[in-house]
Design a protein that fits this description.
By secondary structure, this protein is of the alpha/beta class. It folds into 2 domains: 118 residues, Cobalt-precorrin-4 Transmethylase, domain 1 (3-Layer(aba) Sandwich), CATH 3.40.1010.10; 131 residues, 2-Layer Sandwich (Methyltransferase, Cobalt-precorrin-4 Transmethylase, Domain 2), CATH 3.30.950.10. The chain has 9 helices and 12 strands. The strands form 3 sheets. A 5-stranded parallel β-sheet has the order 3-2-4-1-5, sandwiched between helices. α3 packs across α4. The protein is elongated.
């Protein structure tokens, strides 16, 4: 017998951060949400190990893009979330990393609020934290940088623009998301605004996962190093940071030059 939708009290939609991929880095609150959900609407970058943690009763719906195939529009994703929640399902919208960092969270919140639904947000570990930990470095360091930028290499119109002059200053640090294809553009803008060609840039692919790769480069060598590495997984560019071992090895050479 069809359910009377007027008698259904929708549950709040839970926007949950899946973290960078290692299931051990998932928060306990996120795990509880996954195991009690009726449906999990997830992005492509959420790892299979984390999806395996959902409850046995839970339906999985992929809202991400597979390779270079067709992708759902943001409007279609919004409709999927709203329709599931209005049907009475306990919905988890599962996003890679942290839902508040480059996750289009505001657009999805606007859609569910317009539909009269409530929500909760369960933060996750953003990929920048996992990537910098893999380097044995810190995002901020006394005497080097008192701020760090989390920026994206792409926006809705193509390559994202930023305050390149400020970023080009010595000692600046940034975690650049979605930057593999934009690497040459980023390199050109930074060099044009005075960044040193020898500025370290480390690429971290699949941060925290078993197939994690760390590739050290400089601003001058970045596009060539990326092309040679032929990375297919999600990658962050850690601008201004080298792996700790590489940085320590370079220190005597720097001191000799002084």
């Amino acid at each position: 017998m069809p359910r009377d939708l007027h008698q259904i009290t929708p549950s709040p939609v839970a926007f949950v951060g899946a973290g960078p991929g290692d299931p051990d880095l998932l928060t306990l609150k996120a795990l509880r949400a996954l195991q009690t959900a009726d449906v999990v609407i997830h992005d492509r970058l959420v790892s299979t190990e984390i999806l395996a943690l959902v409850g046995p009763q839970t339906r999985l719906r992929n809202a991400g893009k597979e390779g270079f195939g067709p992708s759902l529009t943001q409007g279609a994703i919004n409709d999927m979330i709203v329709d599931e929640a209005l049907s009475g399902a306990r919905v988890v919208r599962l996003k890679s990393g942290d839902p508040t960092v480059f996750g289009r969270l505001d657009e999805e919140l606007d859609a569910i609020l317009e539909a009269g639904l409530d929500y909760s947000i369960i933060p996750g570990l953003t990929s920048a934290s996992a990537a910098v930990a893999a380097l044995g470095q810190s995002l901020t360091k006394r005497g080097r940088n008192t701020a760090v930028r989390l920026i994206t290499g792409h926006d809705m119109q193509g390559y994202a623009d930023h305050d390149w002059r400020a970023l080009a200053r010595d000692g600046e640090v940034a975690a650049i998301y979605m930057a593999k294809k934009a690497a040459r553009f980023i390199q050109g803008r930074l060099l044009m605004h005075g960044a040193a060609p020898g500025t370290p840039v480390t690429i971290v692919e699949n941060a925290s996962r078993p197939d994690q790769r760390i590739v050290a480069a400089t601003l001058a060598t970045l596009p060539a190093i990326l092309a040679e590495a032929d990375m297919t997984g999600p990658a962050l560019l850690m601008y201004g940071l080298a792996p700790r071992d590489a940085a320590r090895a370079a220190l005597p050479q720097i001191q000799e030059m002084i």
